[in-house]
């Protein structure tokens, strides 16, 4: 007996063994169909008794094992059912012969036999036999079960007879010695008459009867017999049989205690390993009347008591098993019996949940040597050990043995290694090593498990799957290994080589260094590229895809906004609808969102359909060699997205490395960037961000708006070398130019539509920024009309726009320097400009106190003007949605000073409506410079030269300037209004003056404005008085330089007209006309009563004059002598009561110069 | 207490005493002696003077924090040995009732004997496991010595844990701990 039945369990002792075998040619599937039906009759209750008979069916049984039938009767084949095909009556005799041959194999032990004949057509001439049944086909055999039951009953009758026969065999007849095969030769020549021998015979027989009783369903009797046998055999030291008796005792007790059976519902046995199919499945259903009857109450209470007495307790069962096994262990040839006993005991212990003791039994079973085992037997043994360990909850041990079994399948000694079986067994060990092939489970939390053995197992899986010709599987496993065990593929583990000498994979020489792992991965993928599909094994196990998210490792994912020039903006008004905030607070320091929300958080900016969008990943390569990543692209949802994959090569163990992945959204909507796609070592992976908790991201959902046109801007001026000073907004481009103050430059801007949509609208605005300088006049000016007229602009077309860059900064020279001089106000007579100013001007940089910030405002300082031109454009579908784009152009102008007006003053001109404006002009350039005013000749200035320039100007009537409208006045503050008023006045003056400068040497020219130079006093002087006085002498209007002629003796009519242009009513006034003579030597003679006489009064009274009205006073003079006379019109304000004095400049009356000539003779008579 | 013990001694029945003896005999006789089918050569000369051939520290979650074996041996083999011993450790821990868990003795004793080795276990109250594998031929090693080895190991492990720079759950890289382990694995003087 060499082949153990690992499926045995204690309750098998009460079964009778029936072999079912095919005879002749029987299709295998048909046979097993019939076999299954036969085995369904596993338990038959016997008529007229309360006993049950249990049957164990085998379709394969070694006759060798049958020889042990006397030792334990359940090993004895007592029944034979043959299944055969017989098509015609002609074949019948042959079939019958075969059946008899087969019967002979087990002939010695058979109680009864049956032959089931299928497929017979026609009749058999032979008479009806009870042991043969005919069926027309395998499908039409309704009473097979019935026949089997009958058969079992007939077996029972034989069994019962034998039992009674042996049990009552008390006579002085010689009891035959039962013995096991290997004992036979030992007893040759033994004294058969000795007491010792007799006792041995008795004991063995007692034990045998016990077995029969147990099989016949008489548990109580069996126990009694076993006890007696134990006593008898112990006394003669017949250890082998003593062991058997003890085991019998145990079996009977187990049957009593555990009516549910000990085989358990587990044991997913494979057909190749288990010889007895269906047996285990039936075990649970068995009903054991020996323990409890069907209704739960034993019919005979007395037997119940007796049973309880004879029966072993749960503890004792194990003790007796141990004892029995120790006796078996004394006999080398009883190895199988010992092994089976161990297995049975383990099953019992598993039921009792005594894992520790069970493990001891198993440990022992491992050591039992059954001589030379075939490879298949070894596999079977390891598998069953694994199963048993699993049963007692030792999952690791179970996995260990399963793995050993797997290795055994492909042992080098096997000519045809069963890689499939090996792989299958290896997969079953996964749970024992707490390994799950789903990377999602793995990534949850930190790695937990025994890394070294897990790595080993994965390597074996890889190798086995490759050898079984499924490179796809090995790629999947290798990817998993790389993905999950990357940190563990350290050098330390690399030293671990193959295991357990006899179970290692001979050919498995995979090195565990990272490099080699990846190399082999590359090798495999060259045959079968790894993908993201779920691999399904034939047995239904699904291998989820393994994205290699650690090659390279991604640390953060950041969606990038479009470049400034391409960013879409929403039209105001529409935007406000979107500004719904979740919280009622404008600001809260508590950040409520969680990580998960962060992922789904929508990002502020927007992407545009059809435009390339970027996502920046920070990646690094954890491998000690260069990593080539191919086809790295984005995975998105929500919007049709065309990812443009990139290939990158990361240096060994690189630090964080930014990688920008790009793509083009093809439709509008909300796009969710949920992962990225890579191809590393030939394995393509889709790494989803949800599964990568270590990746930082600031949101992955962004809105894609419909497409917009795209403009490219080019200018005639050179690009700016240095960007504009820090400003909030980024600029798409900027230009820079150097200009002299007052110069004007043309800037030609070309806008080309490089997008795919028509440009429909274009707006241009500009904004000066970052400038503290006071700017006069418009810095940038343009005319958009022409450009707009070309819209809509088709893709590829361009439009030009001319912009005038005009710099007019303050031309006042160092106001701070002149402060002191100006304090007393500008004297009408002017200021000697020579010495003090010169002194200040000359020592420029040299003598300035160091660190004095104020000195920086030197007038030679190059000033900077900056402005941003913004081109707002839109078109296409995006325009419909209310989006536009901004293109901004920074204009940077370095303004070099040209001329300065260091001092300004006025001199009254001879006419009251004119005056002289005196400007001290300073040339701060390094070139010779010419200054000219409107109607003056050029003034040549050498570098750093200052000269005074006098310009005669007509006084200005500021009232003619447009008044700001009332609405605006109401809402702006008075100070601003005042400033604005001053500004308009100044610009009016400036434009009237029209001062220009010209540097011939560099061919530059520009304007100079006095706007910043003028102060209140000067302005007042330049202003036309609101009260306008007109003096008409002799019908001719008079002014300072006009000499009115008159004749002596004639009355000269004098008319003084007052026109009130002020806002208020003025007057009443009193005017007195006083004539005098100027001798041109400083003496003025007012004593002219004799020479001039007034006709009427020389004093005029003017009543209140309302605004815009006028009042005329008429008088007359009579000159008595010839001569040059002057009239001084003196003026007296009578409106003292009103409290407000009018400024004296309002009364700038012309002095009248009258030349009295000789009257004609006739008049003098 | 003493008197009670004295009176109890005779109460042991002869039967149970023999049972006990048989039990002891059984484990010795059957499980180790008769069926050793692997012939081992030169094992005694190799390391019978070593104290331990493998020492492992296993985290509460059953992954190794530290494992060290004699270099000439196949390291993975010890990984398997220690890994499978966890089954027994778990069984032994769960065998002690919940209520008794606090008073449980940390030393678990012999976990299981293999052909070549004996595996001893020790579990701290925080469920960190220590496993020491000794050569089964090393009969000179007494239970007390194993216990003291475990105590030393536990003390050193406590020191490791007290290191503020040690991250609980990481593999142990302490030199002090390593030297303690080395001392247990070198030849006993």
Automatic annotation (TrEMBL), chain A:
Domain Trs120/TRAPPC9 third Ig-like: 909-1022
Coiled coil, from the record: none
Signal peptide location: none
Ranges where the Trs120/TRAPPC9 first Ig-like domain occurs: 554-682
Transmembrane annotation, as ranges: none
Pfam family, one: Ig_TRAPPC9-Trs120_3rd
Annotated ranges, domain Trs120/TRAPPC9 N-terminal: 185-259
Residue intervals of the Trs120/TRAPPC9 fourth Ig-like domain: 1045-1155
Region (Disordered): 267-293
Naturally occurring in which organism (per UniProt): Oncorhynchus tshawytscha
GO CC, alphabetical: trans-Golgi network
Protein name: Trafficking protein particle complex 9
Family: Belongs to the NIBP family.
Automatic annotation (TrEMBL), chain B:
Keywords: ER-Golgi transport, Transport
Principal place of residence: cytoplasm
Localization: Cytoplasm, Perinuclear region
Membership in a protein family: Belongs to the TRAPP small subunits family. Sedlin subfamily.
GO BP: endoplasmic reticulum to Golgi vesicle-mediated transport
Name of the gene encoding the protein in the UniProt record: LOC112249116
The protein's name in its UniProt record: Trafficking protein particle complex subunit 2-like protein
Taxonomy, superkingdom: Eukaryota
Gene3D superfamilies tied to this protein: 3.30.450.70
Gene Ontology CC terms: perinuclear region of cytoplasm
Pfam family, one: Sedlin_N
